[in-house]
Amino acid sequence: MASVDRTESGHELAPAGTRLEHVHEPQSQVYVWDLPVRLTHWINVFAILVLSITGYYIANPFVSAHNSTVPIFQYLMSTVRFVHFVTAFIFTASVLFRVYWAFVGSKYARWPQFLPVNSGRRRALGKMLGYYTFVRKEPPAQVGHNPLAGITYVGLYVLFTLQIATGFALYSLPFHDGIWKTLFGWMVVAFGTQPLRLIHDIIMYLIVAFTIHHVYSAVLIDIEERSGLVSSIITGRKSLTREHLAAAAELEQRPVWRRWAPIRRKARSNDGA
Q1: Are the C-beta atoms of residues 198 and 59 closer than 8 Å to each other?
Q2: What DSSP letter does each residue of 74-101 carry, written as one string?
Q3: Which residue segment(s) compose the domain that 205 sits in?
Q4: Residue 45 is part of a domain; what is its CATH number?
Q5: Is residue 13 assigned to a domain?
Q6: For the chain, what percentages of helix, strand and coil (3-state, to nearest 5) are there?
């Protein structure tokens, strides 16, 4: 039997010519998603599920309550609308809190994770696009959100905002005055009731389509990275190798443009003079 070389810590060394992705590397548990991020994520999941089902029923009643003697069916539409509206308020509160947390939360919860504000994030964005277009074999190393996912989440929250606004505009229809009519009634006047309902329905389907893609992408990246990405939204922790963390840190660093390098060297030399 061939002998296996080991490091002082007891980990096996790869034989010559072995591809690195097939070598077992020690992994560290890295705390990535803090509690508010996980809570708002699962509140949104629950709310979108309930709102989609009840909203679809409101638009297309698929259970007939005509001539029913069962109380729950006699008032089924009223019950569904009540559940829809209560869930909408919960969803709105969750969305608003998540936006707030993007400014005061931990590193991986803050807004720079969603917009490629530095050159490192922009480089990672290009690499991620290369991965999804089959130009690259592996996704770039990231600890928090990858830049492409971050931009997608910004678009998703724009849809959330439009969905909330159009929903409350429809909610204001029975009111003749008051805060709901003041804040959202103008949308009914500007666009009309039926166009608002159509926009509200279309956005629902877009959010459902995003959810399907989101689950697929999360499972795909989890398989590629073997990082426990899917379970991390429950535990908050990813299992990442030192090589992965080092590659992610290197990618996040802002490169020095070559044309500015001589100027910076000259400035440093003047400071030392």
Answers
A1: no
A2: HTHHHHHHHHHHHHHHHHHHHHHHHHHH
A3: 25-256
A4: 1.20.950.20
A5: no
A6: 70, 5, 30
Q: What's the number of domains the chain is made of?
A: 1
- Cβ atoms of 111 and 103 closer than 8 Å: yes
pLDDT one-digit tens code per residue, 84-99: 999 999 999 999 999 9
How much is the pLDDT for 65? Answer: 63
Instruction: List the end-to-end C-alpha distance of the chain, in Å, as a whole number.
Output: 64
The confidence score (pLDDT) of residue 122 equals: 85
From the list 99, 105, 91, the residue with the least C-alpha distance to 34 is: 105
- Residue spans of the chain under pLDDT 70: 1-26, 65-74, 253-273
**Is residue 244 a part of any domain in this protein?**
yes
Picking from 41, 101, 90, 46, the residue whose alpha carbon sits closest to that of residue 234 is: 41
8 A C-beta contact, residue 95 and residue 164: yes
Q: Which of 35, 47, 136, 125 is nearest to 85 (CA)?
A: 47
* DSSP sequence for 12-65: BPPPTT--GGGS---EEEEE-S-HHHHHHHHHHHHHHHHHHHHHHHHHS--S--
pLDDT value of position 264: 47
Within a domain: 19: no
Residues 6+ apart with CB under 8 A from 32: 108, 143, 144, 232, 236, 237, 238
Q: Which helix (H) or strand (E) holds 215?
A: helix 193-225
Q: Does 11 map to a domain?
A: no
For the chain, give the longest Cα–Cα distance.
Answer: 94
Residue with tokens 């909330």: 164
pTM comes to 0.78
